[in-house]
Amino acid sequence: MTTNPKTIIDRLRELTALECKAEALSEHGVDVSKSLAAEIEAARALIPTAILGHHDRMRARGRKSLAPVRNGVCGACHLRLPISHAISLNPNQDIEVCDNCGAFLYVEVATEPVSPLASTPAKRTATKRTTKAKKATVQSSMSEHLSISPE
Ligand SMILES: [Zn+2]
């Protein structure tokens, strides 16, 4: 059996899709077909027990066991991941788990080369700072007016 983490993530994604399908069916009172049940079983058989156990615990709590990472943010809980996580996220390494929500993390394969970790966070911070600085200036000039006018 292969231990390539990318393969495990792929299997987990497949399994999640199948389980969601089965859930939707039973919610509508439709019996899960034997072929679908067999597909789920086959998918589970290909996932290491420890990972499967974690997946089941997450599912039991009504959570996703998998989360895509975009711009260094966990797709499940939307919290920024520690930079060490973001850097080590690569298909040739062990599966990473979100510290906050416990979801398995994977980087969505982009069709064109992008740098998900560069520019964006820095730009956002810069914009915020500029806005704050402007507000501060307005407030200070207002308070100057206020301190003069009561006389
Ligand atoms: Zn998370």
Summarize the helices and strands and which ones pair or pack.
Layout: H1 5-27, H2 34-45, H3 49-60, E1 66-70, E2 73-74, H4 83-88, E3 96-97, E4 104-107, H5 120-148
Parallel strand pairs: 1-4
Antiparallel strand pairs: 1-2, 3-4
Helix pairs in contact: 1-2
Bound molecules: zinc ion.
Zinc ion is lined by residues 67, 74, 76-77, 79, 98, 100-101, 103.
Word description of this protein:
The chain has a four-stranded mixed β-sheet with strand order 2-1-4-3. The termini are far apart. It is 54% helix and 9% strand. It is α+β, with helices and mostly antiparallel strands and 151 residues long. 12% of the residues are buried. The chain is built from five helices and four strands, in the order αααββαββα. It has helices at 5-27, 34-45, 49-60, 83-88, 120-148, and strands at 66-70, 73-74, 96-97, 104-107. The protein folds into two domains: 5-107, Helix Hairpins, CATH 1.10.287; 119-151. Helix 1 packs antiparallel against helix 2. Zinc ion (ZN) binds next to loops. Residues 67, 74, 76-77, 79, 98, 100-101, 103 line the site of zinc ion.
